[in-house]
Structures are given as C-alpha cells and as structure tokens.
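Allow me, if you will, to draw on your knowledge of protein folds for a short while. I have a record of one protein: its chain in single-letter code and its fold written as discrete structure tokens. Kindly check, if you would, that the fold set down in the tokens agrees with what the sequence suggests. Thank you for your consideration; the sequence and its tokens are set out here:
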Amino acid sequence: MEKRKEQQVQAVGFPAQSEYVWSVEGKVKSSSDKEAVLKNKTLNSLLNVELVMDKTAEDIAQIWTEFFARRDTVYAVIPGEAFDLVWSRSRCCPSFLYALPRQDGYEFFVGQWTGTELHFTALTNIQTAGDSAQSQLILHHYRELQASKGIVLMMGECDSTFLKVEDARCLANQVQLFYASDKFKLVRTFNHNPSHFKYMEVISALE
C-alpha cells in the first residue's frame, strides 16, 4: 500500500463539450499531449471557472448536474463542510477496503486517496498485478470553488470494461458511509490496526 501511494495512475477518460463544461480533446494534438492533459486534469479543463464565478452555488450545481446527468459517469456536488470532514479523515486514513455487491457475493476494492483523487482498484487485481495494478475508478474532487461558493465538485472516471456505472456509484456512495459517519472506526482500524480489521464488518455496514 505504501508503494501504491507513490504510484501515479492516469485518468481513463474525459467529458465532451457543453456551454460551461468543455472537452480538452480539441486542445490535444498528439498522444503524448493527451496523456499529459489526462494525467493533470484540472477543474479548468472541465469547467469554465471564470464564466461561473458570478453565479450562485445553486446555479453551478445545476450546471454540473445537468452536464453529467446526460453521461454514464459518477458525479456530485458536495457541501464544503461535508468534504472537509472526509478530507481531514483521509489524511490520516488514506486507504480502505470497499465491498461491491455481486450476484454471488461481494467483490472487494481497495480505495486509495492520492491528493484529492480517490482511486479504486479491485483487490484481485492488486493480488495478481501488485504495484502495476491499474485503477478501475477514479474520483476527482475539485476544491477551487469551496472557499467562494461553499461547494466541492466531484466527477468520476470509470473503466467501463470492468465496472458498470451503477457499480461505480455504489463505491462512490460508500465514501460518505465510511468516512463521514461513525463507521469511520472501521477505516481507522484498517489503517492503524489491520490485524483487528474484519472484512465482514464492512459487509454488515452495507447490509
């Protein structure tokens, strides 16, 4: 896990053009440029921040929601205070084991915070590929408007060959469950006292 903290995983996609949110695709002229843009995705590559600065938080939330609602992806507008709680806890407990319900049981994913990005990687992939295991879902959290508008914008990039959007949303929803409630004790145990961590408690929390 310590090695994975240092690993930089590239994003798996980017959205298209709209009035306030636009694609960086038109700016990309070569494959190397594309890799650089995706690796260093900023809010300005998704949203015309200058154009929305005179709008209210509610207006910005509506713009963000209407844009991503038309796409098969994960997105959210998070109240600033709610994100502060998750963010502060992620600093001391950057990793956790999430359970994704399947028809015949559960599939486990390791969630690893890298800055304001949360990377989800299937546990089976980590067991087989080790440090080279790629993320199946990346949640990007943008704090540029938190101070002025009181909101944090989130969008996810999902490997559709591995996860359905419904699966990605299930994992994203669990971040709130485990990092912003009394269930955080499971996260603390996973990070600081792993020998006492019981994965069945994660399943019980979901059920």
Q: What stands out?
A: The chain has a mean pLDDT of 83.
